[in-house]
Amino acid sequence: MRVVVVRVRLVAPGAEVVGPRVLRFGEQVDVRPIASLGAGERLTSAAVAGYIAKYAAKGAESAGAVDGRVHHARDLVMLPVRAHVLRLISTCWWLGGLPPFEPLGLRRWAHMLGYGGHFSTKSRRYSTTLTALRQARAEHRAEEQRTALGIGARPTVTVGQWRYAGRGYSPEAALSWPPRCGRAVVLMAREKAAELLTVRQVIEELGGISRRTFYRWRELRIAPRCIRLPNGELRVRRDVLNDWLEKRAEGAAS
Fold this sequence. Notes:
single chain; Multidrug-efflux Transporter Regulator, Chain: A, Domain 2; three-stranded antiparallel β-sheet; 5 strands; DNA-binding; RepSA
């Protein structure tokens, strides 16, 4: 592996625009044997494939990128990313604006550090999508299940309609319960109220608003009060979010 890594070289396209560039691996190469097998087990191709799949399934967000596309250059200053990741995204945006690189769609995939799609869906011989692969897997598993149940080719009915039945447990309601419910229940409710939510969880709680909208609210100082962790990530206490929602409801009613 070390010999192969040293020999890999790729001449980057666009030398007439940004100058000649040769892409290669850096000096930090960490090669270790796979030694997590149990007693009496041997290394098989399935084990190696499973080990590779664990890392192949990771997206650019694992490196600190964002999960939403960048639509304007002014949006770059609002991205909640580290300086190194911001430089990578900005470089993709700049290169994507140059005519020779326009076919690569770098601006469209700047939030993914320039990588469009997933490597498992593209090759020199075929091109598909993860959606098509998931659908094929779902159909294969459904056919296996029908065969196991002896249903065969008989038609099945899928019910996809849902209705709202009501809201169950909530920390606020638990805090107002009478003392006979016990101190343990009250402490559990208080712990739930102090739960720290990520930005993604807050967005989901608010009905799936865009990240851009949330950070725009922060810029205007109308978003829920956040806590910034030492690594730069934001968190929102659940009770703070609930209070913020209650204030919005009162404002709408008045």
